[in-house]
Amino acid sequence: MKPVRVGICGLGTVGGGTFNVLTRNADDIARRAGRPIVIEQVAFRSFNPECDITGIKTTSDVFELATNPDIDVLVELIGGYDVARELVLTAIENGKHVVTANKALIAVHGNEIFKAAHEKGVIVAFEAAVAGGIPVIKSLREGLGANRIEWVAGIINGTGNYILTHMREEGRAFEDVLAEAQALGYAEADPTFDVEGIDAAHKLTILASIAYGVPLQFDKAYTEGISRITAEDVEQADNLGYIIKHLGISKRTEAGLELRVHPTLIPKERLLASVYGVKNAIAIMGDAVGPTLYYGAGAGAEPTASAVVADLLDVARDITTDHHYRVPYLAFSGIGEQESDLPIMPMEDIVSAYYLRLLAVDRPGVLARVATILSEQGISIEALIQKEAKEGELVPIILLTHCTREKQMNEAMRLIESLADIAGPVTRIRVESLDEQE
Amino acid sequence: MKPVRVGICGLGTVGGGTFNVLTRNADDIARRAGRPIVIEQVAFRSFNPECDITGIKTTSDVFELATNPDIDVLVELIGGYDVARELVLTAIENGKHVVTANKALIAVHGNEIFKAAHEKGVIVAFEAAVAGGIPVIKSLREGLGANRIEWVAGIINGTGNYILTHMREEGRAFEDVLAEAQALGYAEADPTFDVEGIDAAHKLTILASIAYGVPLQFDKAYTEGISRITAEDVEQADNLGYIIKHLGISKRTEAGLELRVHPTLIPKERLLASVYGVKNAIAIMGDAVGPTLYYGAGAGAEPTASAVVADLLDVARDITTDHHYRVPYLAFSGIGEQESDLPIMPMEDIVSAYYLRLLAVDRPGVLARVATILSEQGISIEALIQKEAKEGELVPIILLTHCTREKQMNEAMRLIESLADIAGPVTRIRVESLDEQE
């Protein structure tokens, strides 16, 4: 059988992993694909000593691969936006299939890329862009294809989960654990992408489009990081039976789609609550299947390579298939005219329960004033913890509310913060049930 | 686009669910498949009042569907061995693709069925045969296709997990919870298939073949049920930091493949330990991806239908694909000549840690005699609990051993049981680490 010839752009962590997995498991991969998958050329700027590239054609110019007539599939593992976009569009223009692990590229430029690929009749596969080695794109797009998807919620950033895990297990502060994670290489020198939820929002944007058949709309995702979570919040959540996780959540509602990344209290008994360290997991609710969950490594050289090579296997099988019968990029066929027009809801229209932490001056009547404000906004209280006051100190008040519209909560918080008895801003963390035992 | 025409055989729980999901989500399914999937004919003996079959052609003879020239895909949901086998082979003989949820059929007659299907160039899809709605066949066969699979371990029988969950949570006896499960419809009047592990062994056999590319060998699976687990064992396991789950386990070792279903102590912190009630979950370890886990409903009308319809989507997409490039039935191409010849190991060659519970006469030296026997078989003890003796009663001794070969353990148990101080048979439950955090 004619082999599928691959060009790998980038030989860093994921590129090196992909090179090594393709080489090490070549025989089994050929038996699975029905034909060999061979590395035709590799483009890289700095050599990866973990790869034995003896006999492989190399270059420092990734665009050489995009035009090389001996390459069937370009594997984009250079990361970033602009060069990656140009590289992928050039490869498509030259009739090549594309496999990428680049979540930022797909979330931001995916609509343009898929349009170009559709016109050329080529595959663009991106399993590795979400949750590393977990085959969640395949599961959602094919395995749950019978379902109307109701919601998706996931731990899709390993760095954030590592930090929250250690804050909880060791009662430590955010900054402290972040510094440790940076020292260990689990967090970047500039951790913004991870801890502020941008990376998770990229992945959630992709998952939501596949779940509901809507265009990619990263700019409409609500993004809130974990940098303001304190050891006190982690402990109070624990006392109330919850664990704080940084989740990407997308729900289908009557009014449209929710698309939001933020710290979230979830009940301790959820499987998502037991996902520790850098691991990822995604819970998906379908109307037929009910709740399902997918767990594994969300990053790392070989876990991500596992997803890249799985995409290559799909390309190898579908390379001769009529383009119309291939799995659509965003799960539903008909680019443009057949996409769902469900709008992404503004954050103030979402409905959630809330955890609030206030610091109050220890004077009679504070609680009554807070309760009155909540009541006037139609928000009912599920639980309340008021710690004993120490002489001259502010008293923390912890509240759990029932579900309410975010708009009402924003207004209530504004009013509470304007009270003379309340010191500083109110800490607000959303609470989700996400019942996967249903 | 030309629709794919489906004939559904059986309109019971899963047949009815499949009918309803295909009907309810028809528009979305067509957008996903690239063409409509229409129900051409339904065969059933007793009508399912949950289905609106207005305008659908019906028959009481399933074989009519196997020869109906207007049907492209036969969906076998009648269950059982003999008629199902004949039905599926007849459909294949008539050039039809087949989708089935029948684990017993695939585990026992799969090799014959795949051979016939391969010769005819038709698809036989069976996602629903393992773990209901969880897309674990697709994940293992395609999503993890880059990997050399190291082990698979799963809770793949909901009835057994329901019983063990309630035994643990309520400290109740096996018979007691079983009777309740039967009253609630979670267990059959004859529960043998579920509680003795036969159903789980069918599913494990299928998973192992897909994981390692070996022929289906149900007759070589070791099967041990949960009917001898006592409330005492559940409690002692808990004290030691473990939970007892009924697992299907298949590992790749130097000597061959392990293929075994039995009650198993697993550490409490494993995700598998937090899978409650009738839910299923499968952990899979790959050399590149590391540990992954898949969770969801393992049975039920619509969860199982979700998997059946996902298979129909695959058939709809691949119906015009050259058979050679379709995903191979058992993951690896080349029926016959290219299968792996890794042998299934006899149970006495497997290596495991063990939990032992003995009842001893309260006399000095019993423990020394037991320890000596274990030591002479090369078995070392990890933990030991000896309960305080009550006047005139037998003393329970609980032991956890380090890993040893099952053969040595069998011999040690024989010698221990022959001691005059030991009453009755030794209870032995295997202990597995199955680390999914690695």
TrEMBL record, chains A, B:
Q: From the UniProt record, which GO molecular function terms apply?
A: homoserine dehydrogenase activity; NADP binding
For the ligand (NADPH), the binding residues are K103
Q: Which family does it belong to?
A: Belongs to the homoserine dehydrogenase family.
Which positions bind NADP(+)? C9, G10, L11, G12, T13, V14, G15, G16
Q: Which domain of life is it from?
A: Bacteria
Q: Name one GO biological process term.
A: methionine biosynthetic process
| Domain named ACT: residues | 355-431
Spell out the protein name for this chain: Homoserine dehydrogenase
Q: By its UniProt entry, which InterPro entries does this protein fall under?
A: ACT-like_dom_sf, ACT_dom, Asp/hSer_DH_NAD-bd, HDH, HDH_cat, HDH_CS, NAD(P)-bd_dom_sf
> In which organism is this protein found?
Halomonas lysinitropha
Phylogenetic lineage: Bacteria, Pseudomonadati, Pseudomonadota, Gammaproteobacteria, Oceanospirillales
